[in-house]
Amino acid sequence: MSKSVVIKGGTIVNRDSEIKSDVRIENGVIVEVAKNLKADVQLDASGCIVTSGFVDLHAHLREPGREEAETIETGSRAGALGGYTALVAMPNTDPPQDSIAVIDFVREQGKRAGLVDVVPSGCITLGRQGETLAPMAELAHAGVTLFTDDGVGVQNASLMRRALEYAKGLGVTLAQHCEVAELTEGAVMNECQCCTDLGLPGWPAIAEELMVFRDIELVRMTGASMHFLHLSTERSVELVRAAKRDGLPITAEVTPHHLSLTQELLGTYDPVFKVNPPLRSAQDIRALKAGLLDGTIDAIATDHAPHPRRDKEMSLDIAPPGMLGLETALGVVLGNSELEIKDVVALLSWNPARIARIDAEHGRPVAIGEPANICIFDPDLAWSVDLERLASKSINSPYVGRTLRGKIRHTLFKGTPTVIDGQAQK
Ligand code: DOR
């Protein structure tokens, strides 16, 4: 039997209630919600929010194949420190997640680390090459619910149509990285006046929007459900808003970095700000935020993309795109949006749990009988990133030197504290 845990003095935030109460957990389950509770382990939550653990729809954990950047264990620890209890692992590993063998390996490594639920996504196409469909039925029968070629979009419309038809029959969701490759060759940053001034090749907004548009129409045709990854432009939000108005089974995410950082940062020529899709304009940020407020955007996902220092120290044109996100997501979101706490939890936990179809275990209310996947955070604590103390194996965080507001204090995974007072427990 595991030790009983009590979370003391916090404010429990659920979908339809906000109450001050203690919470007692035994054997991974919430057994009591009341005042003045006692247990073997006591976690102080005064001044803190107690709510369901976060679910990231978009984490690059790099294992197998690129363990010098991250492992499933280090990525899981970074996730726990960020308040996460489940991470959807992106498939651009080496080998990619297009076979049962690799999916099983990722799951097993997740279990071995034991810090979060690691939920492997499957590739849409074999090797993410965009030519032949991956064995989607076999992977779906093995429990894969989200399929994506993330890192690249599926360019071939006929193949995408076929994938959606299979997805519909299998009851799974396709998640698209929207980028028409012919329009972004060699691109380093958003195509805008400042990219011309800086002499850098541009990634035009339309490269994203064309694929959003195409895929909305393919969803209309096939009736399959589709999730749009890391949307970054004003017009993408408008397209999704209209598609939802038409009742199409579409969901969408944005990242913390696209909500908080703008294209002008590329003027430093620092590859830490190179990401795909690129940082956009202040006007795009306003549109993304409006999309969060009116429900057009369903989730905030990190696109946590660790890269080894030597790769990110290359020049801007050859350095790989991507930035860390798991440990900073909450602080960035709280400090860069007008969202209420409840809306932030919806975007970081309840909605992504539903999209990943893990809402029997994650994104649950903090209530008696529910699994104790919980995070506890101080919404007002100001802090800054210390590269020496990141749990991630990589250090490509764009938030160094910035003050973030809101920090995870404790995280519980299946009733066991993985983080206590901001410290990882294993
Ligand atoms: O910036 C990015 N990095 N965007 C992606 O889509 C992939 C990711 C990576 O794997 O590094």
Fold and architecture overview:
With 426 residues, this protein is an alpha/beta fold. It has one domain: TIM Barrel (Alpha-Beta Barrel), CATH 3.20.20.140. 29% of the residues lie in helices and 23% in strands. The protein has 12 helices and 19 strands. Strands 1, 2, 3, 4, 5, 16, 17, 18 and 19 form a 9-stranded mixed sheet that branches. Strand 7 (84-89), helix 2 (100-113) and strand 8 (117-120) form a beta-alpha-beta unit. Helix 6 packs parallel to helix 7 and helix 7 runs parallel beside helix 9 (282-293). The mean pLDDT is 97. Bound molecules: (4S)-2,6-dioxohexahydropyrimidine-4-carboxylic acid. (4S)-2,6-dioxohexahydropyrimidine-4-carboxylic acid (DOR) binds at residues 60, 92, 150-151, 177, 275-276, 303, 305, 320-322. The site of (4S)-2,6-dioxohexahydropyrimidine-4-carboxylic acid has 12 residues, from loops.
Name its key features.
426 residues; TIM Barrel; globular; binds (4S)-2,6-dioxohexahydropyrimidine-4-carboxylic acid
CATH class category name:
Alpha Beta
- β-strand number: 19
Q: Which percent bin holds the helix content?
A: 25-40%
Number of domains: 1
| CATH fold node name | TIM Barrel
Mean pLDDT: 97
* CATH-derived architecture: Alpha-Beta Barrel
Report the uncertain regions. none
Binned strand content: 15-25%
- Looking at the structure, what is the overall shape? globular
CATH 4th-level superfamily: Metal-dependent hydrolases
Q: Which class do the helix and strand fractions yield? A: alpha/beta
Termini separation (Å)? 19 Å
Largest sheet: 9 strands, mixed
Q: Which compounds are bound in this model?
A: (4S)-2,6-dioxohexahydropyrimidine-4-carboxylic acid
